[in-house]
Design a protein that fits this description.
single chain, D-Maltodextrin-Binding Protein, domain 2, 5-stranded mixed beta sheet, globular
Length: 310
């Protein structure tokens, strides 16, 4: 039996926190096994001066790690689920989706002001078209300022770029112990989260039975079913992670409730709908909700975004 396990991860503070968390769980399963990291730089890590949507929306933060996994240079990869494309490469699978941290987005303002107290033309930093479109839908006079970099870099830019506030995922802020910086949490009725936001995905080779067995201990059923529905919605819309598409599902007993959103870059139009059903219908529910939004005009919205990304 192999005496070590190698985890592939990006090198940011948040990515390393996530990898260490998985490492600690695996160490409980394999107490006599050496579990190491291999830090891999992705395209999204290397290109920091261009908006994400302009450099290609799919796989920006995972492709190089997946290549290492396919080449057997690593045994598993730890990703933020919101960074993962809706289609897996041949030979790889999602071994586990861990219990979700808070999926909401948060506001961190420079002067401690909440959303309603910000200036009418506040400068808001975000790298996400999903966040900016929903913000502009509710606050059309806000000025959106592109914001790239890891979490610490973006927090520093709050002052250096003279921003009134920035918008981040609650999960990353909480995991790095920076939740004292949070001014307020966005209700999901105002800003719907990214697909998979708050959950970690552990990617493995689909023929690696040892890792498959280990993943059973890390997988969270409710989160897995929720994210499965969200990803089916995303896949049906053929959207990457850098377009104004959002979906958020919750599970109660054996029932699942899914809300989806598609918006124009300016926040107009913004289409939003929801659907409910059994957890074993997760994929069908995601596909059905996507088709509902297509019928309402989502196809035309997404067609316009193709020109933006060129």
């Amino acid at each position: 039996m192999k005496s070590s396990i190698i985890i592939g991860t990006r090198g940011s503070a948040l990515a390393l926190w996530q990898a260490r968390w998985v490492q600690s769980r695996l160490q409980e399963i394999f107490p006599d096994t050496s579990i190491e990291f291999q830090i891999i730089k992705t395209k999204g890590d290397k290109i920091l001066d261009v908006p994400l949507a302009k450099i290609g929306g799919k796989g920006l933060f995972v492709k190089e790690i997946e290549t290492a996994l396919l080449n057997k240079e690593i045994d598993l990869a730890v990703h933020s689920m919101k960074d993962m494309p809706s289609v897996m490469p041949v030979g790889l699978c999602l071994g586990a989706i861990t219990k979700r941290e808070n999926p909401q987005d948060v506001l961190i303002s420079r002067n401690g002001l909440d959303l309603k107290s910000l200036p009418k033309t506040a400068r808001i930093g975000t790298s996400s078209l999903r966040r900016s479109s929903q913000l502009l839908h509710a606050y059309p006079n806000f000025q959106i300022v592109p914001l790239r970099g890891n979490l610490d870099t973006r927090l520093n830019k709050l002052d250096s770029e003279n921003l009134d506030a920035i918008v981040l995922a609650a999960a990353g802020v909480i995991r790095l112990g920076l939740d004292s910086r949070i001014t307020s949490y966005f209700d999901t009725t105002l800003i719907l989260p990214a697909v998979g936001q708050g959950a970690l995905g552990i990617e493995i080779r689909d023929n690696d039975t040892r890792m498959q067995e280990a993943m059973c201990h890390l997988d969270d059923f409710e989160t897995h079913m929720s994210v499965k529905a969200e990803r089916a919605f995303l896949h049906q819309l053929e959207g990457g992670c850098q377009v104004p598409i959002a979906a958020y599902a919750t599970v109660s007993s054996q029932n699942i409730h899914l809300t989806g959103m598609v918006a124009g870059l300016s926040g107009q139009p913004l289409l939003r709908d929801d659907i409910s059903g059994r957890t074993d219908q997760a994929v069908i529910l995601g596909q059905t909700l996507a088709k509902k939004l297509f019928e309402q005009g989502a196809k035309d919205i997404l067609a316009q975004l193709v020109d933006y990304s060129k």
